[in-house]
Amino acid sequence: MTALKELFLIRHGEAEHLVRNLTGGWTDVPLTELGYDQARRTGRRLAGLLEGGPFEFYCSDLLRARQTAEIIAAQIGQTAVAAHPLRDINNGLAAYRTRDEARAMRKPLSKPWQDWVPYPKGESWRMVRQRVEPFMEALEGERAVIVSHYVVLAIIVQWWWGLNDERIDATSLDIEPCSLTHLRLDAYGARVIVRLNDVTHLGNSA
C-alpha cells in the first residue's frame, strides 16, 4: 500500500511532435521553445506549492519529459529520477510516423477498449496501467512530483481515486502540456483532487 499523501502531476511541455504533425507515444523528440518557456513557468509555480517540504521527484525517460523535469529541477532544487514505467503509451510501428501514416495503420477500435492495441507492436491502455500502477504503489515517500505524459497521468488520477474498469470506461480527462494536477489526502483520509489540468501559471504562453 502506497505511503503517498500528496502528488503533483505535470505533463511535459509542448514538444516537436505536436507541431510537426507526428504521432506522440514513443516518438522521442525534444521540447519546442514554447515548451521550454512552459516548463520554466511551471517550475516557478511548483516551487511555491512545495513550500520547502521533502518530496520525491520522478519523470518519464522520454526526452520531452526529461527536458521538462530538468527545467523544473532548477526551480525546485531537486533532480528527477527518470523511470521507464512512466513513459508514454507505446505506439509501436506508428512511432516517428506522421499522423496520416499512423491513421492508415491504425487497427479498428475493439472492445473492451482498454485492451485495444491501436498500432502493431504497441500497447493498450490496460498494458500501460499494468506498469504504472505497481510503480505508484511502490513509492515510499509521502509526497511526490511526477512529470510524464497524458495517458500515464490520466491513469495515475484514475488509480488515485481507485476507479474500476466501469468508471474508467465512463470518464475522460483533459491534461494540457505543462498543466498542473494536485492530489492529496485530506484530514479524514479522503482522496482529493485539489486542482486538475491547471494552466493558469502559463499565462499567454499556452
From TrEMBL:
This is Fructose-2,6-bisphosphatase. SUPFAM superfamilies: Phosphoglycerate mutase-like (SSF53254). PANTHER family: BROAD-SPECIFICITY PHOSPHATASE YOR283W-RELATED (PTHR48100), HISTIDINE PHOSPHATASE FAMILY PROTEIN-RELATED (PTHR48100:SF1). GO terms for molecular function: phosphatase activity. Substrate binds at R64. One of its GO terms (cellular component) is cytoplasm. CDD domains: HP_PGM_like.
